[in-house]
Amino acid sequence: MSTTARIPEPVTPDAPTALQRPLLTQQWLDLAFVHWAVDPADVAGLLPDGTVPDVLDGVTYVGLVAFRMHRVGWLGSPGVPYLGSFPETNVRLYSVDAHGRRGVVFRSMDAARLVPVLMGRTGFRLPYVWSRMAVQADDDIITYTSSRRWPRPRGAYSRIVLRRGEPVAEPTELEHFLTARWGMHNTFFGDTGYLPNEHPRWPLHRAELLACEENLLAAAGVPTPTGEPVSVLYSPGVPVRLGRPARPGGIPTP
């Protein structure tokens, strides 16, 4: 896989464009962002055709992101309280395409509701998997647990425990790079496409990682990083709007 990317668009803390007709609305709540630095060459082959690793000072990153999805709604409809609300844990990489659009690539998406998992897999070709999951808060300590049910590898797991710290007044360049992501790259309709999103600026907190036991990265085919995470953040969350996938040429799908 290779492509010649244009100069990437700037990293901006606010969405670069407003979505007039969102395909999906939802809330992302109680997020844990845990990131490790990796060599771009080690993950380049895991990205969709037409994209390359997005780098900051020659380094790219793998993220383990755990959160609560809340009230997913379609085409402006009210969010669904049960089927649209569930814990989720993602393994993600960072990508840029030939149009300079920065995004994320999901290598796995563990979620606790089977129906949304099936819809995500069939409708969007996303790597959703069904897992037993929980998010528990005890004052400033938040615990995220996940154990995979279907499909394989069954038993893939994660347990993340962090202590929420002080709010981030001004995120660093790296913190913006890892969180200010306004779309994802994925294979839609046989081609690599880009699905944009928009939401308010992230409210971020620094966080202390008390425990991180997992094999989700290895199960997703990501080389296991060595050393400690380079960034650990918490966010209480944001409301999110997602647009329609755009084909490689930037043309939205019907």
From TrEMBL:
<protein>
    <recommendedName>
        <fullName>DUF2071 domain-containing protein</fullName>
    </recommendedName>
</protein>
<dbReference type="InterPro" id="IPR023375">
    <property type="entry name" value="ADC_dom_sf"/>
</dbReference>
<dbReference type="InterPro" id="IPR018644">
    <property type="entry name" value="DUF2071"/>
</dbReference>
<dbReference type="Pfam" id="PF09844">
    <property type="entry name" value="DUF2071"/>
</dbReference>
